[in-house]
Amino acid sequence: MKKIPVFAITLLICVTALAAVPVMTKPVTTTFTVPHYTSQLQWRAANGPFGTWTFATGSYADSDDYTLAGNKLNTTITFSPLVTNLKGGDTQYKFDKKSGFWIQDKTLVSYNYAPLYGDYMVTNHFEGYLAFYNGMPSSTTFVHGVMYQWIYIHAPKGDTGVTTLLPNAHWDEDAHAWLVGFSIYLYDHSSTDYSWVTFPDPFQSFKPEDIYNPLSL
Description:
Layout (H helix, E strand, L loop, with lengths): L5 H14 L9 E16 L10 E2 L3 E10 L2 E5 L7 E4 L2 E7 L4 E4 L2 E6 L1 H4 L3 E12 L9 E12 L6 H6 L4 E3 L4 E12 L29
Antiparallel strand pairs: 1-2, 1-3, 1-12, 3-4, 4-6, 5-8, 6-7, 7-9, 8-9, 9-10, 10-12, 11-12
């Protein structure tokens, strides 16, 4: 046993006490691009009646950028054409041990887009998940994912301005708002046919509950 002089004992205790305080460090971040194939299924009140897809694509080559920080996977939702008064856009996924998926936090984005919605601001709700091989996100381990989008105008049911502008707008009793758009974005590591996916009937309204894949896609 190494003998320590008495005057050093107090110093040692102080150092030990200081060392016991956890040091807050930022998690290591890794940014990478995930190549994948995207399929889109959309309904927009400006383009057709509720209950039908007004736009659908085959599976096309695409990619997304992600930043992994600890157990959080981050990316940004962007819009084309450009919108105005954009609020939100960053979205985050967290790993769920039970499912093995990275589940998207429910994400709220609002904006104005005069060509479709006039002076009304629309509210977009997003939710979904991503699956990576062994649950480990990287540019080479992506397997599958889906993201749902609901677009609402929060105006009273009696607001005839909405239906004058968008005769196909659908009053959503669950959300107490005018539904003016709904989309499903499907992501896969190889080209996949989703022509079999029909417009949901009964329709799945956006719900704040923890349901990340309401159509089990």
